[in-house]
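Below is a filled-in request sheet from our internal design queue. Each sheet records the structural input a requester submitted and the sequence that came back. We keep these sheets so that new team members can see what a complete request looks like end to end.

REQUESTER: design group, bay 2
PRIORITY: normal
MODE: inverse folding
CHAIN LENGTH: 465
BACKBONE (tokenized):
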């Protein structure tokens, strides 16, 4: 376990002198986002959400949207120095029967980067960007930040929120998809932290999953287009030089940096993703990609591998993880003009015993099986919202090396990080919980995720004795 005496580093944005709760929430009047979308039934009224029967006050059963006085960014956490690596891993793996050899192997990944995971630094940047985004929209809510596995810990941040007088907060979890580890476990973490803090602990309501929110899709479309452009440019340069030169170890260090400015809309984005927005209250979302048939791409065009963390097949069978990731990949590919035969959803970073089935194919295997004539591959880690060790090690080093072995140009698309459209998406998720008239945006074939998970969804996996 991480020692409680560790100082909490840059825990985020401290609350200022706050006005009355929600008094400054302005409606979002930006064109193309809310104008053509009707609101659906608000939290606690969704007919497709099973009633909560576990009597945990934090899960909530309010018939109308309550007032909130803070936002909590809730994430995974990571070590920030060599001395942090071993206690971090043992905190993360507690209760699991993981061989010491495997722990040492994973530790080596962190030590390759000086014992520092990029996730905490990126979350600090996200907290600062979100605080600015909310302030610019006249939403007077302070932003806190807590982690599941390392400082600043969730329990410490819940205690600080209580001491600051916070009564009810909205939690943005840095995971877009349904699964035990990506959704349900965070709800359990919140309940455990509130119980440990005790009397006066704020109620914390989790924001909905955002795998099909237009802000998330648009962010990834832009990232993929830039990566495709980089792959094409690198190939042209190398051909002009008279020889094919594979990418460096990281594939695309420049592309891996968070986007600071929103890029202009590229021609292939003229399908206007924002105009596809739909709501659960108006029936099944329309999808203009249903009947679109893209021409077959020549083998020289880059292949696109959409990457996400593998999970056990038994866990995948109890949640919508694969379905949601497949939908995100399809929407991003369509938005970037990538034909179906040029992209694939693949998995990475599996662990556990070899006898336990996990989702396949693995990204390295998929690279090895790319069809003859493929000159470049773009890795798009849509399962992550920022750079984790699984991104900078498993993709930027291991997968990129597998591509170089085949003589491929390898480019890794940037994760959302602090892309302005991604940060604006978080504000929109907050706004829809503050304002009953706000739209619930979604694109594609699936409806917006409910605000409150159904009882029993994404159950914890059975631990082997």
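RETURNED SEQUENCE:
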């Amino acid at each position: 376990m991480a020692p409680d005496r560790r100082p909490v580093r840059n825990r985020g944005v401290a609350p200022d002198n706050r006005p009355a709760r929600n008094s400054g929430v302005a409606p979002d009047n930006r064109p193309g986002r809310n104008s053509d979308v009707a609101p659906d039934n608000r939290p606690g009224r969704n007919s497709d959400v099973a009633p909560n029967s576990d009597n945990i006050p934090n899960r909530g059963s309010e018939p109308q949207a309550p007032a909130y006085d803070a936002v909590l960014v809730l994430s995974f956490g990571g070590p920030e120095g060599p001395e942090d690596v071993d206690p971090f891993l043992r905190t993360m793996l507690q209760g699991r029967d993981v061989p010491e050899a495997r722990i040492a192997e994973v530790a080596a990944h962190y030590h390759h980067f000086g014992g520092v995971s990029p996730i905490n630094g990126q979350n600090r940047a996200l907290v600062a960007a979100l605080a600015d985004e909310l302030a610019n929209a006249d939403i007077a809510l302070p932003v806190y930040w807590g982690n599941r596995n390392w400082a600043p810990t969730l329990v410490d941040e819940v205690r600080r929120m209580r001491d600051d007088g916070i009564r009810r907060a909205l939690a943005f979890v840095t995971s877009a998809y349904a699964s035990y580890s990506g959704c349900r476990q965070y709800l359990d973490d919140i309940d455990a932290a509130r119980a440990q803090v005790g009397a006066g602990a704020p109620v914390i309501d989790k924001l909905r999953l955002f795998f099909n929110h237009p802000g998330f899709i648009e962010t990834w479309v832009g990232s993929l287009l830039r990566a495709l452009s980089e792959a094409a440019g690198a190939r042209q340069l190398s051909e002009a030089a008279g020889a094919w030169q594979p990418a460096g170890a990281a594939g695309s260090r420049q592309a891996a940096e968070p986007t600071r400015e929103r890029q202009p809309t590229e021609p292939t984005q003229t399908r206007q993703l924002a105009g596809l927005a739909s709501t659960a209250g108006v029936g099944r979302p329309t999808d203009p990609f249903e009947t679109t048939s893209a021409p077959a791409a020549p083998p020289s065009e880059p292949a696109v591998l959409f990457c996400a963390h593998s999970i056990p097949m038994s866990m995948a069978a109890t949640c919508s993880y694969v379905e949601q990731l497949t939908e995100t990949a399809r929407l991003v590919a369509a938005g970037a003009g990538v034909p179906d035969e040029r992209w694939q959803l693949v998995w990475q970073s599996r662990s556990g015993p070899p006898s336990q089935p996990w989702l396949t194919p693995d990204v390295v295997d998929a690279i090895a099986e790319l069809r003859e004539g493929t000159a470049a591959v773009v890795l798009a880690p849509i399962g992550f919202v920022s750079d984790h060790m699984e991104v900078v090690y498993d993709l930027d080093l291991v997968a990129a090396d597998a591509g170089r072995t085949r003589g491929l140009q390898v480019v890794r698309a940037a994760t959302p990080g602090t892309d302005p459209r991604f940060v604006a998406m978080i504000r929109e998720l907050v706004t829809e919980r503050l304002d009953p008239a706000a739209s619930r945006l979604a694109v594609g074939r699936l409806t917006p995720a409910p605000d409150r998970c159904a009882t029993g969804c994404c159950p914890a996996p059975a631990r082997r004795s």
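SHEET NOTES:
- The two ends are 22 Å apart (CA to CA).
- The domain at 214-262+274-412 is CATH 3.40.50.1400 (Rossmann fold).
FILED BY: M.R.
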